[in-house]
Amino acid sequence: MRTSADVGFVAADVAATLDRCQRATKPALQRAIAELHPQLALIGAYHQGWCNADGSEVNANGGKAVRPTLALLSAEVAGTDTTVALPGAVAVELVHNFSILHDDVMDGDRMRRHRPTAWTVFGTGLAVLAGDALLTLSGQILPRGLGSRSSVAADRLTCAVSELILGQAEDLSFEQRSDVSIGEYLAMSSHKTAALLSCSASIGAVLAGAPPAAVEELATMGRHLGMAFQAVDDLLGIWGSEDLTGKSVFSDLRRRKKTLPVVAAINAGTAESRELARTLSRADLDEDEVGYAAGLVEAAGGRDRARREVDSRLNMALDSIDRIEMPAQTRAELAGLARYLALRKT
Fold this sequence. Notes:
- The protein has a two-stranded antiparallel ribbon.
- It has one domain (11-342): Farnesyl Diphosphate Synthase (Orthogonal Bundle).
- The chain has helices at 11-34, 38-48, 66-77, 86-107, 118-122, 124-140, 148-174, 182-208, 212-239, 242-245, 251-254, 260-266, 271-280, 287-299, 302-323, 328-342, and strands at 111-112, 115-116.
- A hairpin with a 2-residue loop joins strand 1 and strand 2.
- It contains 16 helices and 2 strands.
- By secondary structure, it is mainly alpha-helical.
- 72% of the residues lie in helices and 1% in strands.
């Protein structure tokens, strides 16, 4: 069984793939965001990392563009030039950034990608409006001239957004509960994170006219990859370094977020599980108590359970890639990207 310790890829190759797809997507994404109201366009550009709060240009590309990369690679599965998939790549990135703008407000996060979050700079109201504008724009960007392909792509995007919103509602509700099961958590993760990655991994193939079986296998691959991605995020949310994540260590524990390591640890039925539940129920946790809670999560098996989830989902994603007929270069790039996303430092 392949695991997240599998190093059968070259990080430089994955970086080159991400850079290629980001360069292909960025101009179209910039043009789309520039169509918004000037204040909202500024927030969108700032959030992407393209400019400072005063609009002065920043020499940076923004995030890694994982979702647009999946969209463009999925078009290459069909042996098609990625140009046809470009609107899909832009659309999924717009949805992703809509969700982050709103997430930062709801979670009270003050840092994103090592800089102040948009709501702390421009205010909550404008940040929420900017997120709304990006979501609306995502539905307008898909091409109208591809007949049923456009309709199918639009339907997939709409379903992904619906799942994402459901997952966010579930995630917020978990913060008020102490009885969240692993099954409930995994369903939330599938909705909140994996749905958009599933859409991203298949929307380009839809626009390119790939066979339905290949489209569905790509969607399945993206779903598993999204579950692995979220489990890694959960590990980083407790044990990730500030240099790597742009957030303080133990940040998720401070907010008492019911991430997979925490849910698994609380449900383990050990003495450490019970002590963890008691610790997290306290009104305020100081630095020593948060560190103590992280130790309890690990002692109760939460860290190992999350790592097993990463390994299992990575394996299933790679199996899906193996089942799809595609050019050898595209297969190597997809498999490398999957491993890269599951190998972020935890």
